Amino acid sequence: MGRYLIRRSLISVVTLIAISMIIYSIIFIAPGDPLGELAANPNVSPEVRQRIRESYGLDDPLYIQYFKWARAYFLEFDWGTSFTSRVPVKDYLLDRLAVSLSISGTAFLLGIAIAIPVGVISAIKQYSWFDNIATTFAFIGFSIPTFFSGLLLILLFSVKLGWLPFIYNSNVSGVWPLLKQSIMPITVLALFSSAQLTRFVRASMLETINQDYIRTARAKGLREQAVIVLHAMRNALIPVITIIALQLPGVIGGAVITEQIFLIPGIGSALIKALSSKDIPVVMAITFGIAVAVVLFNIVADVLYAIMDPRIKYQ
Asked: At what angle do helices 175-209 and 146-153 cross, to 10 degrees?
């Protein structure tokens, strides 16, 4: 396992360097001017605009701009300065990351807490009333896009009933006000996440409980609870780990659509704003950070495979 982790880490470093080159090249050739707002301001002279461009290195060739960014990012751990807000990217994103984690992270954990027991019970009680209801809600939750379910919740609980605020205010203090403005976005994200995971858990559990070793465990006289928890669930959750590992970077990256609907100042809304203004340091910090999370969580998933199933060996 140690040699495997070292090999995967070395491959991951090469992969991330290649990803950073591709992302930076795409952003560089994309249309738009990072200093477009200054160009449209008649009070800013061309000489001042040119000096600002030179200070940010925007007139340098692509490879020089990339190497400057890579040196600052990898060697100095400096994420640069935002072109639009003129503040350090690290400070700008860390504040928004806390908001995204509080919303997306809570919704993700809630989705897992709902999906695993519901999926397991649906598989055990296949075609029962519980399975039919759970499957119906799973299909509905997975089919309805988050922007539509978010708008429905806003119309019901904000417009009609007036119970919950539909605009997220990061300056609100107090547990109950924070909870009130977080209920709808968390519900939207948890509904979609749990619906997707429920289908995977149910399908994996159905395949597992029909295996020969499950019948053997029952024939030995083991309690049904021990058969399900110790034998069936442990193997059924192995493919689910892959799904969870692939969804985790989305928690860090924020929920772009949901944050736009509820005006949440998170990572997702920061990415949309940075893309529209071609704010290269912010876009690179977010997109490359998500790429790092994808690679990291895939390695973690591989390690969890061996923990869940000792038969898995990495040569």
From this structure: 140
